[in-house]
From TrEMBL:
UniProt xrefs under Pfam families: Aminotran_1_2
Superkingdom of the organism of origin: Bacteria
UniProt similarity note: Belongs to the class-II pyridoxal-phosphate-dependent aminotransferase family. MalY/PatB cystathionine beta-lyase subfamily.
Xref: SUPFAM superfamilies: PLP-dependent transferases
UniProt name for this protein: cysteine-S-conjugate beta-lyase
Length: 398
């Protein structure tokens, strides 16, 4: 394995023709091959060199059979959580999954019945809605409120809703708003859910992508009472750009919950095999990826700051909710329009860019756009220039 490598995040990598969801269906999704895609949450950066080398070596073996997790895998994952997040977990708490969303689905099947209420906090990562509705459960929306330019939780409403709900899907750090929930906020959520018997399923997939001075607090690390009634979902996919490897984990400290979760995941949903390359990617990134991540965080912060400064200078009528985490910026474009169709027309036809249109994250998101700044700065600035030119024409015509 290599060490001390300096990564060039400014390097533009041509991803066309690689079966890329982001780059290989521009005509189908947005009506033109010249549209710049900054929508789906994967980055345009090469993974850590050590991960690439390990996967190449594994590919050379030529036999891609059923795969198990090794002792090295467990050591890498538990070591990462303790080193980066101060959270000591037991290896038996780890339950593998091909992704975080399948783990959410397994939790919903394991701990709720059709018709039961599942709490989410809109606007939020849109598969939360899908995984509740598609499984015949009822969405209980605890909308986030904007205070001082950031999202805050309505704890009074949450207290009432928890009286009749069975499960809560928590997005921590928050997508699309980029909030890093504080220990006090998480504890208040936990106390409400404990009082009313609500199990917390915490999607912490963005936990490594946090900008100082903010610090991610794993929900289950708050104390054994919270850990026993929670499931935490993690993956290296956002951190190290490994989404295509299909590797994630659910961390289930409570023995009773773990038995029920395993029974549902393995027997009910047939989630019981690991990805041949996913195990290698997960172990290698958590074992060797820290220097790469430290360099990435510096670059992402600079991209974030460049984006915020761009809007302040060129489009001050629009407001950026400056993310405390993630590589996703949530931008209030209601000064232009709160009509999703109009914002799509502005992006795809007039600006030739593709950001995520906000209403997919819930009705509160209408009039907002989510911009993925996990890309080379030249690409980001080109997309912002295109958008600014089109948006300025709209704003000046008002």
């Amino acid at each position: 394995m290599t060490n001390g490598h300096r990564y060039d995040f400014d390097r533009i990598i041509d991803r066309r023709g690689t079966s890329s969801l982001k780059w290989d269906q521009l005509e189908t999704l947005f009506g033109g091959e010249d549209v710049l895609p900054l929508f789906v949450a994967d980055m345009d950066f090469e993974a850590p060199r050590e991960v690439v080398e390990a996967i190449v070596e594994r590919a050379k073996r030529g036999v891609y059979g059923y795969t198990i997790r090794t002792e090295g895998y467990y050591e890498a994952v538990t070591g990462w959580l303790e080193r980066r997040h101060g959270w000591a977990i037991e290896r038996e708490w780890l339950v593998s999954s091909p992704g975080v969303v399948p783990a959410l689905a397994a939790a919903i099947h394991a701990f709720t019945e059709p018709g039961d209420g599942v709490i989410l906090q809109s606007p939020v990562y849109y598969p939360f809605y899908d995984v509740i509705r598609a499984n015949g459960r009822t969405i209980v929306d605890n909308p986030l409120r904007i205070e001082d330019g950031v999202y805050r939780i309505d704890f009074d409403l949450l207290e009432e809703q928890a009286k009749s709900a069975k499960l809560m899907l928590l997005c921590s750090p928050h997508n699309p708003g980029g909030r890093v929930w504080t220990a006090d906020e998480l504890k208040r959520i936990g106390d409400i859910c404990l009082r009313h018997g609500v199990i917390v399923v915490s999607d912490e997939i963005h936990h490594d992508l946090v900008f100082a001075p903010h610090k991610h607090v794993p929900f289950a690390s708050l104390g054994p009472e919270y850990a026993e009634r929670s499931i935490t979902c993690i993956a290296p996919s956002k951190t190290f750009n490994l989404a295509g490897l299909q590797a994630a984990a659910a961390i289930v400290p409570g023995a009773e919950l773990r038995r029920a979760f395993l029974r549902t995941a393995r027997l009910g949903l047939s989630i019981h095999m690991d990805s041949y390359f996913g195990v290698t990617g997960m172990e290698t990134s958590y074992r060797y990826g820290e220097p790469w991540l430290e360099q990435l965080l510096v670059y992402l912060r600079e991209n974030r700051d460049a984006l915020v400064a761009f809007f302040e200078d060129r489009l001050p009528e629009l407001r950026v909710m400056t993310p405390e985490a993630t590589y996703l910026a949530w931008v209030d474009c209601r000064a232009i329009s709160d009509d999703p169709a109009e914002l799509k027309k502005l992006m795809y036809r007039e600006a030739r860019v593709a950001f995520s249109e906000g209403s997919v994250f819930g009705k509160q998101g209408a009039g907002w756009l989510r911009i993925n700044f996990g890309c080379p700065r030249a690409v980001l600035l080109e997309a912002l220039e295109r958008f600014a030119a089109a948006a300025r024409r709209r704003l000046d015509a008002r």
